[in-house]
Specification:
Number of helices: 8
Number of strands: 12
Distance between the termini: 26 Å
Order of helices and strands: EHEHEHEHEHEEEEHEHHEE
Helix content: 25-40%
Shape: elongated
Structural class: alpha/beta
Radius of gyration: 18 Å
Largest sheet: 5 strands, parallel
Strand content: 15-25%
């Protein structure tokens, strides 16, 4: 999943980005409201973490502009202290949730996962995906094959998650890069093939098919 952090406190923003990258997310960071609005409009994100007090445009205006343009990306707002954030105003502009600083990193991650589940699967739906004897728990980041737990790195899990969410469909290399690696990644796009090969070794060789010239497909199994 690809996240955008719009936060002008650079140390906090970079600390959050480092932690969330370790969780397996692709993370982009900007420090200005106008840049945040531009980036969220031009690129495809699964969630935006949006500070309220920003240079350029404040968080309320960024959120309202995104919703007015038809973007339904989940937005988690950050506020410096109680009272600065008017919950009614935040919800009116289209925010999905908010956290007051200082906040627990564990709570932040839990809120992010809840918003992503709600968006991707519908409120109340299970985060567990079953594909034959393959079971993927996207909330706990655990994978089981024929009841045996398979240990994956954060990036391996993130690549598998993109395939699982579109089981039976072709997922292009560009789509995987966009959602698993961050905006600044300018390395070899064949890195995707490296992770696909690793997944095939750890899972089952024929589970992930290469569709020549198009991408990869996780075979849908009953």
């Amino acid at each position: 999943m690809r996240l955008l952090i719009v936060e002008d406190e650079k140390r906090l923003a970079l600390s959050l980005a480092k932690g969330l990258t370790a969780e397996g997310y692709a993370v982009d960071v900007v420090h200005d409201g106008r840049e945040g609005l531009y980036r969220a409009t031009e690129a495809s994100y699964d969630l935006v973490i949006l500070d309220i007090m920003l240079p350029g445009l404040n968080g309320y205006r960024v959120c309202a502009a995104l919703r007015a343009a038809g973007h339904d990306v989940p937005i988690l707002m950050l506020t410096a202290k109680d009272g600065e954030y008017d919950e009614a105003e935040g919800l009116d502009t289209g925010a999905d949730d908010y956290l007051t600083k200082p906040f627990s990193y564990v709570v932040l991650v839990a809120r992010i996962k809840a918003l992503l589940r709600r968006r991707g699967q519908g409120a109340g739906a299970s985060p567990v995906h079953l594909n034959g004897d393959l079971k993927i728990d996207t909330a706990a980041h655990r994978v089981f094959l024929a009841e045996e737990e398979i240990t994956l790195t954060a990036k391996e899990f993130a690549v598998l998650e993109q395939l699982v969410l579109r089981a039976g469909e072709v997922v292009s290399k560009a789509q995987i890069l966009e959602h698993v690696w961050d905006f600044a990644y300018d390395g070899d796009p064949n890195i995707v093939e490296v992770y696909i090969s690793a997944l095939r070794r750890k899972l089952r060789a024929g589970l992930i098919k290469t569709v020549r010239g198009a991408g990869y497909r996780l075979e849908a199994e009953q």
